[in-house]
Specification:
By secondary structure, this protein is an alpha/beta fold. The protein has a single domain, classed as NAD(P)-binding Rossmann-like Domain (Rossmann fold, 3-Layer(aba) Sandwich), CATH 3.40.50. The chain has 7 helices and 9 strands; from the N terminus they run E-H-E-E-H-E-H-E-H-E-E-H-E-H-E-H. Strands 3-2-1-4-5-6-9 form a 7-stranded parallel β-sheet, sandwiched between helices. Strand 1, helix 1 and strand 2 form a beta-alpha-beta unit. The longest helix has 21 residues. The two termini are 26 Å apart.
């Protein structure tokens, strides 16, 4: 029975990853969380950790076939505090990846962003690029890095700018380069679960076209 862990199951993509894995009858799913999500499913196990403590993560992430990382925040959620933002968007994925390497986990699948670049002048894209670079250098047999553009789907929190974009961008999508086209969160999640089950090797980056095919 495949044994999966999800970090970020309460988020938009993470929630869809959970749904995809729940549809696999022969799968064991563990949610690595800061606080309980209070979900009722006999196939689910929750493990609460302090993500700032590497030893806790190393202990929590033992014995998995694949680990999914779909964490992220917004400037609004952290009230513009870039240190707090970095702690979530950078430190958690990198610490989880380090735990995967420590435990010799064979597959790590991470949500990043199209345009991620450690040299970018854009704070968000620079953080994502730094995460990609740090993780790609780790000794993990397969690292899948998924780089969506605008995500389509219903979030728990209301984001006016994103809501407007979700209506406008699909209309403009045919005129855009494929990698920048909006994509549903469920499509990203399906691609991540699909690729996790292929037993691949190396660092592989996925953008719009490769996530849909």
């Amino acid at each position: 029975m495949p044994n999966y862990a999800i970090v970020g199951a309460s988020g938009l993509i993470g929630g869809h990853i959970l749904q995809e894995l729940q549809q696999q009858s022969a799968a064991s799913i563990t949610l690595i969380v800061r606080r309980s999500l209070a979900l009722s499913d006999p196939k689910l196990t929750e493990v609460k950790v302090d993500f700032s403590k590497q030893e806790q993560l190393n202990h929590a992430l033992r014995g998995f076939d694949a680990v999914f990382v779909a964490v992220g925040t917004t400037q609004k959620q952290v009230k513009g505090d870039r240190v707090a933002y970095r702690r979530i968007d950078h430190d958690i994925p990198v610490s989880v990846a380090a735990a995967c390497a420590y435990n010799q986990i064979s597959s790590l699948l991470v949500v990043s962003s199209v345009g991620a670049n450690a040299s970018s002048g854009n704070f968000y894209l620079r953080i994502k690029g730094e995460v990609e670079d740090r993780i790609a250098a780790m000794n993990i047999p397969y690292i899948g890095i998924f780089q969506p553009s605008l995500l389509l789907g219903e979030r728990k929190e209301f984001r006016l700018g994103e809501k407007v974009s979700q209506y406008l961008m699909p209309l403009l999508s045919p005129m855009m380069p494929a990698r920048y086209r909006p994509i549903t969160a469920s499509a990203v999640a399906k691609a991540m679960v699909r690729e996790a089950n292929k037993h691949q090797r190396g660092v592989v980056r996925y953008t719009y076209s490769s996530m849909l095919n």
